[in-house]
Amino acid sequence: RFAYVNGRYVRHAEAAVSIEDRGFVFADAVYEVCQIQQGLIVDLTRHLDRLDRSLGEIRIRPPMPRAALVGIMREVLRRNRVVDGMVYLQVTRGRAKRDHVFPSPEVRASFVVTAKSMNPAVNAAKYAAGIKAITVAENRWGRVDIKTVGLLPNVLARQQAKEAGAQEAIFVDADGNVTEGGATNLWIVDKVGTLVTRPADHGILKGITRTTLMDVAEKLGIAVEERRFSVAEMLEAREVFVTGATTICLPVVSIDGHTIANGHPGMTAQKIREAFFAVAE
Ligand code: PDD
Questions:
Q1: Which of 44, 116, 186, 267 has its C-alpha lying 20 to 30 A from 10's C-alpha?
Q2: How many domains does the chain contain in total?
Q3: Closest protein CA for atom 2 of ligand 1
Q4: What is the pTM for the complete model shown?
């Protein structure tokens, strides 16, 4: 496998960043993950818009103009022969002597791009069976709308899920309301058939898949409501599913050992997933 690292295309075995890189030392870095579907970078513009926003929020200057960045993404995909899979981008504040405050004078941002192939059959199997999830207490910082690589709570939550025989952890805030999954946004189909997801405030990542799914739902004539919902409402929902760039739209059939609806993936999740690629750019 080949990666792009600060101006060069290198094999993973030779790819390296400095031990003084602020991404390594402070998680002072942001990232993006895009799905590659039959050679197409799904929702590319929205992902790059969000990268710009994340960089702006933590005041890192974009490493290069957008056209150059897209050129690198495509070259990394080409060198790794990715047709179906994902591309990963990470930008850090760069390399400097360890000091919490920003380096002054400013240093050049570090920029890394990797890509990998993923067999679509793996997702297909998950779509057919659905996944299990657990709930965990929300313990992240107050700006999870910024897509930073500071993902330790997410890592621990997903590990806890795995050890419980589940595939996703669902964060629940102090009011008993659902925020999002460890690496996904969470949706329910409520009692009256409305698609419901939490409003995109500072308490969730405003997923690109989430945004595009709203376009899809509108095209399909499915009502969408952005409002908070409790764990109790989620457990009684007609359907529960999670969305994210690596899985698009994945049904959840069991939460904390409680079966959702009849325990099988619902029709809404399936319809939306099938319509998804018609609107993704
Ligand atoms: N995760 N919420 C969290 C905490 C996430 O990490 C992600 C994405 C999402 C969904 O966002 P999007 O639809 O833009 O992928 C929501 C990526 C895929 C990851 O960390 O691997």
A1: 44
A2: 2
A3: 184
A4: 0.96
